[in-house]
Design brief:
The chain is an all-alpha fold and 155 residues long. 72% of the residues lie in helices and 0% in strands. It has a domain of 90 residues.
Length: 155
Amino acid sequence: MQVTALNWQHLVVATALGAFLGILMAFCINSVLIQISINAFFNIYFGVLFMSTGIMLLYRNGTKARVGIAGAELKDLNSSGLNFLGTPAHNAPRRMDVQCSQDVELSTLNDSASEAASLALTAENNTRMLQLNHVLQVLFSSMVLMSGILCVFLE
């Protein structure tokens, strides 16, 4: 990949915007922490906000887990050769019609399709990733809930 002046401009703009947003978020977080430590109203307010957010996240994770268990029992959709858009999946056998002025080696196209198929997760690995994702979401939700409880009761 060649580095052009346009790439550098995008990099500089993205870096500046990211730095500005980071400074703004740090300022907001510090302001909230100061308000929580000074004012009992904000302590209770943010505690209730965090507790309700944690409860909603835990509820959502519980409903997603039930849907995930039901979905895991279903047949793998990629085995039909179609993805969710109805287009041929990467690993599905398909007819390749190549019409161009230059000769294109079909073996190269088949190699790239098989390489893309090898990057796809197997059903077992996909299940493991979903389980890990669920555990991490439950941990995060629990931490949000516990921070709300600490805000309210450590006043």
